[in-house]
Specification:
By secondary structure, the protein is mainly alpha-helical. It contains seven helices and no strands.
C-alpha cells in the first residue's frame, strides 16, 4: 500500500500541511542512514535500508502510473541504488528512458532487468513503451 493517503485517480497527497512537513526537506522519507539510531544493530540497519529500497520502488512506480516521469525515474534510481535486485524498477526506468528517446540508457536498464527476470524479454517485445526502439537492431537482439 502507498505510505500515505492519496487520491487514487489524481495521485494528490491528502495529508495536511503539518503531516507533509514531517517528511525531509526534499519530500523524501523521514530517515536516512545518517539519522539512524546508533543503538540499531548492523543487521537491523541493513533490513531498514532494504525496506527503504522497496518504498522508493513503490513511490517510483506510483509516480510512473500517474505520468510524473522525471520524479518516477529519480525515485526508481534511488530504489536500485539501495536494492539493485529490483528487476521491476530497472524495467520501469527503461520504459521511461525509451519514451524519452534515450536509447543507450533504455537498452542498458532493460538488459539489467532481463538479467534479473528473463520474463521481461517477452514483455518488452510487446510493450508500447518501447515503440520508439522497435526496429532498432540492438533492441531486437536484446529481446530476441
Amino acid at each position: 500500500m502507498f505510505p500515505y493517503p492519496y487520491e487514487r485517480r489524481s495521485g494528490r497527497d491528502r495529508r495536511s500541511g503539518a503531516e507533509r512537513r514531517n517528511l525531509g526537506e526534499d519530500g523524501s522519507f523521514p530517515f536516512s542512514n545518517e539519522e539512524m539510531d546508533p543503538e540499531v544493530s548492523e543487521e537491523k540497519a541493513a533490513q531498514m535500508r532494504l525496506h527503504l529500497g522497496d518504498l522508493w520502488n513503490h513511490k517510483g512506480k506510483e509516480l510512473f502510473r500517474t505520468h510524473h516521469y522525471p520524479d518516477a525515474k529519480e525515485a526508481l534510481l534511488k530504489a536500485v541504488e539501495i536494492k539493485p535486485e529490483l528487476a521491476d524498477a530497472w524495467y520501469v526506468i527503461a520504459c521511461i528512458e525509451s519514451m524519452k528517446s534515450e536509447k543507450e540508457g533504455a537498452l542498458s536498464r532493460l538488459r539489467k532487468a532481463i538479467e534479473l527476470e528473463p520474463g521481461y524479454k517477452e514483455k518488452a517485445r510487446t510493450h508500447s513503451y518501447f515503440k520508439k526502439l522497435k526496429g532498432d537492431a540492438d533492441f531486437e537482439r536484446l529481446v530476441k
